[in-house]
Amino acid sequence: MRMRLEGLTLLTNEVSRLASFYRDVLGFPTVVEEADYVELENSGVRLSICSKPLMADNTNGHYSFSEERKGQAFELNFQCDSPEEAIQKYDEFVAKGATAIAAPIMKHWGHTTGFFADPEGNIHSIFAVNK
How much of the chain, in percent, has pLDDT values that exceed 90? Predict the structure, then answer.
C-alpha cells in the first residue's frame, strides 16, 4: 500500500480574504466556494482554504483551532520555467497586492528566488532553476 499527499488546507479566520488573494493575486481558479471552505484548482495536490471554526467543529473542538497563531505557518514554493518568468510573476503578484519581501535574485544554490507574503503574513517563494 502506498500513501500519497492529496491535499493541503490553509486554515484561517478570514476565508474570503485569503481566497481572494490566492484567486486574484496568484491566479488559482476557484473550484468550490462556500462561506467556510474554498477549493482552488491546482494540478497535483489539492489546495483549499478552510475556516478554523469549521475545522474545530470537524475535530470535536480541538483547542488548536481556537489558539492565536504567531509567526510563519507554512511556505508554498512556486516554480517557474525561467528566471525571467520568476521575476515577471513576482512583480505581477506584488502589483496585485502581495507583500514584497525580497525580489528574485540569483542564489548560490542555483536558483533565482524571491519571496512574497500573503495577507496573513505567510512568506512564500517564487523561483526558477538557473540553466
Answer: 83
